[in-house]
Amino acid sequence: MAKTFAGARLRRLREERGVSQVELARLLAISASYLNQIEHDSRPLTVPVLMRITETFGVDAAFFAGQDTARLLADLREALLTGAPRARLSVADLREVAESMPEVAEAVIALHRRFRQVDEQLSAVTGDRAAELVASPHEQVRDFVYRHRNYFPGLDEAAEALAGRVRVRQGEVRAALSRHLGQRHGVRVVTTQGELSHAATTGELHHYEPGTRTLHLSIHLRPGQQAFRMATQIALLEFQELLDEIVALGELPSGQARSLARIGLAHYFAAALVLPYRVFHEAAERLRYDIELLADRFAVGYETICHRLSTLQRPGARGVPFSFVRVDRAGNVSKRQSATGFHFSRAGGTCPLWNVYEAFGSPGRVLTQVAAMPDGQRYLWIARTVSRSRGGYGGPGKTFAVGLGCEIRHAGRLVYSAGVDLDEVSAATPIGPGCKTCDRPLCPQRAAPPIGRALHVDENRSTFVPYPVGDPQG
């Protein structure tokens, strides 16, 4: 079992509560010198001491967990090496900052992101219009959700309570939600023949008319999708203050980003209403996280199940902590959320050795992969394509690959681990966060040289590796 060193977090918590070292040592029934050693990471936190600390301060044990260090370290390294590529920064030094002073690391990362936004806005003003695509409101919202580890307890609890009141039951979800919209909000739900309306050319799936209090749903929506749209409308009508309160905490810089965040939170609420936490969590554990069986059980799509699985982090009833990603054939990431330490790079694309891209070669088939990151952390990834169409012959459609991954220590709880040797380290596929921030110098699939490393250029020799590198720049 890994030792837990959390001196900086314990010291900050103690100082925030105005408790002296001597007083806290007395409350924890340990000596002041022992507490001093814990706060300076000379001694690890033992389980009995950790339990007494959580009782004393009323915090969850996860407050002291170090599972996000890998992600924080990767973000910090990306920020510092991108901003100052010639600086001499060892991985060991950065890891010490990420582990001992996470708030400092997060502040540095936040400053770097603000620098990027200003730099991109300046580029846009001076003529580099492509930069506008990088600093998008969508990216700001993704970072907002990422910081919350894709878990919003207030929304989850409110949705679960409402599901109990309106009696959301399997096979009766649409009827229950439609009835609630009518009785509580005077909203009429109608199905629209899209081919006879404006929706035929715009691809509109739903729209709400506040004046007539009518919610129009496209005939092309499947039953589960119709229920999801109704649940989203309930969130926007009934829980406006809660949505606004969470958005305000995000400190999003633009009005458009705040609007997008509000919609995203309404979608989160909708998933939590259609798939109430305890019912869904119990089914997921019982079915060993079999995504397709869960999709059949709750009559929703594969991607909806994956997204909901990535949100099950309620204290006392935690599911497997997943990372969730959706990509297209060109490698564009349109969705990414993570409850784990997995790092999604912001500098360049993702890794082509990842099985998420292999899924496009086997449409509709579930693929598994044990993947190892450069820091040695291993993950079990499940990937499959999902396709959508507006309906009708020749109608345009869209195809994505959806990936769901968890740390290898949780993989045994998944049905997808059957027949997979989870203990064989050498069998894992070496992947990275993205070529520009990846530490694997011998990767033949590399598409760009790593940040902070000088290329080894020799006109008298060639290598199978496309970007041979030398020592770190300094």
Report the count of strand segments. 13
Number of helices: 18
In total, how many domains does the architecture comprise? 5
The pLDDT mean sits at 84
Low-confidence stretches: 129-134, 195-201
**Rounded radius of gyration (Å):** 24 Å
- Percent of residues in helices: 40-55%
The secondary structure category is: alpha+beta
Biggest beta sheet attributes: 6 strands, mixed
Outline type: globular
What is the strand arrangement across the widest sheet? 7-6-10-9-8-11
Beta-strand proportion: 5-15%
- The separation of the N and C termini measures 38 Å
Domain HTH cro/C1-type: 10-64
InterPro entries: Cro/C1-type_HTH, HTH_RamB, IrrE_HExxH, Lambda_DNA-bd_dom_sf, ScfR_C, TransReg_Diox_bact_type
Organism: Kutzneria viridogrisea
Pfam family, one: ScfRs
What features would you describe in this structure?
Helix content is 43%, strand content 14%. With 474 residues, it is of the alpha+beta class. The strands form 4 sheets. It has a 6-stranded mixed β-sheet. Strands 1-3-2 form a 3-stranded mixed β-sheet, covered by helices on one side. A two-stranded antiparallel sheet has the order 4-5. Helix 2 packs across helix 3, helix 9 crosses helix 14 (255-274) and helix 13 crosses helix 14. The radius of gyration is 24 Å and the shape is globular. The chain starts with 6 loop residues before the first helix and ends with a strand. The model is unreliable at 129-134 and 195-201 (pLDDT under 50). Belongs to the short-chain fatty acyl-CoA assimilation regulator (ScfR) family.
